[in-house]
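Q: What would this chain look like folded?
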Amino acid sequence: MELKEVIFIMIALTTVVSGWLVVSLKNIIHSAFALLVTFFGVAGLFVYLGADFLAATQILIYIGGVMVLVLFAIMLSEKVYNVPLFQKSKILPAILVLGSIPYILFRVIMEASWSVRTGGGEIMGPTTETIGRLLLGEYLLPFEVMSVLLLSALVGSVVLIRKEVGKRRGGPSWK
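A: My prediction, written as structure tokens:
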């Protein structure tokens, strides 16, 4: 086996094991840190696949933003440590769903028509340049429309939260 195959196996194994730890650990803080390792593993797999933009996005957005938010939410929540994670009445439906997923994936893999590209094995350049050219060229209008849509959703959620806070305090929500 070559070194790159060993590195891939180590990254993939670390990602799978830490993903399993996320759902199996009883302490929610430990699960959050296992999720952090999972996110790093996914970023490593993106780097291995040559998707440098996705790897950077994974690190900046998920590790830098989402994980910090999750950890703050856990730390600021009261009595979150004693919440039971498993309920015996829900084990059978979970086993049925989890048992059906490999069956469905196997059927899709076996019945799909997979097209194989035969190439000269040329190495692609950085994907960030291509994505940047497409977002600021051909797809500029849809990109800006999505920006305005996300901004309006953010403003709408702030307005709804302010109304809820105002109702709880008994006063106007804009103060």
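The two ends are 66 Å apart (CA to CA).
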